[in-house]
Design brief:
The protein is of the alpha+beta class. The chain has 10 helices and 12 strands. The chain has a domain of 262 residues: Peroxisomal Thiolase, Chain A, domain 1. 30% of the residues lie in helices and 20% in strands. Helix 1 packs across helix 2 and helix 3 crosses helix 10.
């Protein structure tokens, strides 16, 4: 058994809901990053890719029928390259990277493309089939963009609260107020804007369909502008459109491979630990806490060794809750912006944070880093990377 390494990471710019990528099919976005990350390794024969594993949280529209395999074919890879799709909702592409690394460590593969895609704009409405033909009553179209749909009536009601309501409950439980959430969100925009301005993302982002930069970054965001926004989920709540991640479209991919391969590029990070955790669905926002602790234990290190953290910012409140629980220095977290600014196309975000972390570790000359993500319905994932560049 050997170690699994990241050789390259690539993503599309993340588009706003109904924005610049609204006409871009998710399978085309996925194909673009799959082809792009393979091309980053000049000595890699595409036929030598053992598997393509893509995450997708929806799968109800143009991302149907195994978008991982569709991406292989649309990317022009040899038809002999297999592809599979995994779904762990927001953690889908991190799950893909974890699965790919396990294949390599077990000796079942040498080269894997792992990533994910989501078009929240193009997610379709669905119409359930009636139990019998010619129903007399009305039927309702159901949006598949985000959250619960077609809920099993046996599911406990407290489990099926909206994502926003779940995080309002978390804010109440932990006493994390609106001011602190807004300040966290502003910092996300400021850091993302600075990262784009100084070229940090130039080699991590593949322009597609006329979009060259993340569409949601607001360099002029301030606590004053966020303070005027109305609560989105409760009339007296703390969560607004300004301190939560938006709806987005985009794709991301990683080239995960064994050591000592002649790919024309050197590995940049070793996947040193993995962790998953679960708790009550309504408390999903803090599931990364235990997942990261498990990943660190698997890597044989502790929080005192960690020099950089990439935590997907689904909501400012859940991000702050995780940082408080870890007691980690906020100055090492999301130093190049987070999902509140960059965006959160569900199936792509896990690979985005891993790819960003690998580069941040090189930039900061740190050895160890943690990438983590919360997942609706009460789950969390985390990966520990070791900088080897």
């Amino acid at each position: 058994m050997g170690d699994a390494f990241i050789y390259a990471g690539l993503r599309t710019p993340f588009g706003r809901y109904a924005g610049a990528l609204a006409r871009s099919r998710p399978d085309d976005l996925a194909a673009a990053v799959v082809r792009g990350v393979v091309d980053r390794s000049p000595n890699l024969d595409p036929a030598d890719v053992n598997d393509v594993i893509l995450g997708c949280a929806n799968g109800a529209g143009e991302d149907n029928r195994n978008v991982g395999r569709m991406a292989v074919l649309l990317a022009g890879l040899p038809v002999s390259v297999p592809g599979v799709t995994v779904n762990r909702l927001c953690g889908s592409s991190m799950q893909a990277a974890m699965d790919g690394s396990r294949l390599i460590e077990a000796g079942d593969a040498s080269v894997v493309v792992a990533g994910g895609v989501e078009s929240m704009t193009r997610a379709p409405w669905v119409l359930p089939k009636p139990a019998k033909g010619f129903p007399a009553g009305h039927e309702t179209l159901v949006s598949t963009t985000l959250g619960w749909r077609l809920v099993n009536p046996r599911m406990p009601e407290e489990f099926t609260a909206s994502l926003g309501e779940c995080n309002e409950q978390l804010a109440d439980e932990l006493g994390i107020g609106r001011d602190r959430q807004d300040a966290f969100a502003v910092l996300s925009h400021q850091r993302a804007a600075a990262a784009w301005a100084d070229g940090f993302y130039d080699d991590l982002v593949l322009p597609v369909d006329g979009l060259e930069r993340d569409e949601g970054v607001r360099p002029d965001a301030s606590v004053e502008t966020l303070a005027v926004l109305r609560p989105a989920f409760r009339s007296d709540g703390t969560i607004t459109a300004g301190n939560a991640s938006p709806l987005n479209d985009g794709a991301a991919a990683l080239l995960v491979a064994a050591e000592n391969l002649d790919l024309g590029v050197a590995p940049v990070a070793r996947i040193a630990g993995r962790g998953s955790a679960a708790l009550e669905p309504q408390r999903f926002g803090i599931a990364p806490v235990e997942a990261a602790d498990r990943a660190l234990a698997a890597a044989g290190i502790g929080w005192s060794d960690v020099g950089a953290v990439e935590l997907n910012e689904a909501f400012a409140v859940q991000s702050l809750a995780c940082l408080d629980a870890w007691k980690v220095d906020p100055d090492i977290v999301n130093t190049r912006g987070g999902a509140i600014a960059i965006g959160h196309p569900l199936g792509a975000s896990g690979a985005r944070v891993i790819g960003t972390l690998a580069k941040v570790l090189r930039e900061r000359h740190e050895r160890w880093g943690v990438a983590a993500i919360c997942i609706g319905v009460g789950q969390g994932l985390a990966v520990v990377l070791e900088n080897v560049a």
